[in-house]
Amino acid sequence: MNYNYVVFNNYDPGFWNREEDGYYAVCLADLAGTEGVQVVTEPFRHLGKLPGYAMRHLRADRYKGLLTESFWRRWYPRYFRFRFDGKDRPLCFLLIANPPVEYLRYLKERYPGCRIVKFFRDLVATKQVWYDAYREAGVIDEWITIDAAEAQAYGMHHYPEIESRIDLAPAGETDCDVFFAGRAKDRAGRLLAIYDALEAQGIRCRFYLTETPPAEQVARAGIEYATKPLTYRQMLERNLRARCILEMNQRNAVGYTSRFLEAVMYDRRLLTDNPGVADSPFYDPRWIRIYQGPADIDPAFIRDPAAPDFRYAGEFSPRGLIEFIDRVLLIA
Q1: What does the alpha-carbon distance between residue 153 and residue 156 come to, in Å, rounded to a whole number?
Q2: Beta-bridge partner residues of 208
Q3: Which alpha helices (DSSP H) does the chain contain, by range?
Q4: pLDDT exceeds 80 at position 326
Q5: Partners of 8 in beta bridges
Q6: What is the pLDDT of residues 36-87, one digit of tens each?
């Protein structure tokens, strides 16, 4: 590689312990031990559990104005611990999280010649505040987004989603035909309609729903209305015990979604309302079906005993993103 990479990842919930089984940690798991790459999951965490927690939360918007920028500048050198063997290579800071503009300015001063790359793992429109702040400050050298249309609209590079395939506990016996896990929010009614339609045809469903409005918590044997989400590892292991994964997006899906990546990486059938997956080289109607409503779902697809085989070979690994950025920076 031409650069050493410091990747600022989003952090998973957890007070005393960084949640190694959380979604963001799992997504970048392939980078652990990769030469020339250091992942910073939580700023200041190397200072200790309580100091790291306190410093991160003092950066929250509700505390703005409480501490001056001069205070933070004294702490910036401790934001992460610098560890690289190949110290002769320049630094590239890859932002998946959104550090403050002032800190990015500090990095430019502290490490002359460094490059800063922003990678949007969601629509830019959902992070417009950060996009505007970074653009106005001129602190970003290269921009990357997972959405091809936004890449063209904003003049960014396009790179599909990333996720690491991890070792999971053996699946054991199948305990349901269709599994769904996620926040219900405004989808509760649609999820219930699919559940009832499938159960009426003898399809065993297991839905694990969080953030369901109390008025919409309709009792069903296979629906659990939970107060906290599963860890990401727990959800993946439940996926393995189901014949098929159900995906229902809260908004118009773009590109690769997490459920699509999971189905491909772990060879599971997928029911999805994201028509964009049909453009993927991994799309195979034997293993993936696109639906708009309950009437579109064929029970025979779910019951088919043939095991999916997407021939996945690490195409979604975050290592590919690092290699892509290395090439981009070489020609920039």
Answers
A1: 8
A2: 181, 224
A3: 23-27, 49-58, 69-75, 101-110, 128-137, 148-154, 188-199, 232-240, 258-266, 299-303, 318-331
A4: yes
A5: 40, 95
A6: 999 988 777 667 667 666 666 666 555 566 666 777 777 777 777 777 776 7
Exposure on the CB side of residue 213, measured as CA atoms within 13 A: 7
| 20 close to 107: Cβ distance less than 8 angstroms | no
Over the chain, what is the mean pLDDT? 89
Q: What type of residue is 11? A: Y
For helices 101-110 and 128-137, the axis angle rounded to 10 degrees is 40
The Cα-based distances of 31 to 74, 145, 321, 322 in angstroms read 30, 20, 11, 9
The reply to whether the predicted model has a pTM over 0.90 is no
- Cα–Cα dist 258/203, whole Å: 24
Sorted by where each starts, the structural domains of the chain and their CATH numbers stand as 4-164+317-331 (no CATH), 176-303 (3.40.50.2000)
Three-class DSSP category at 267: coil
CA distance 329 to 80: 23
Higher pLDDT, 226 or 126: 226
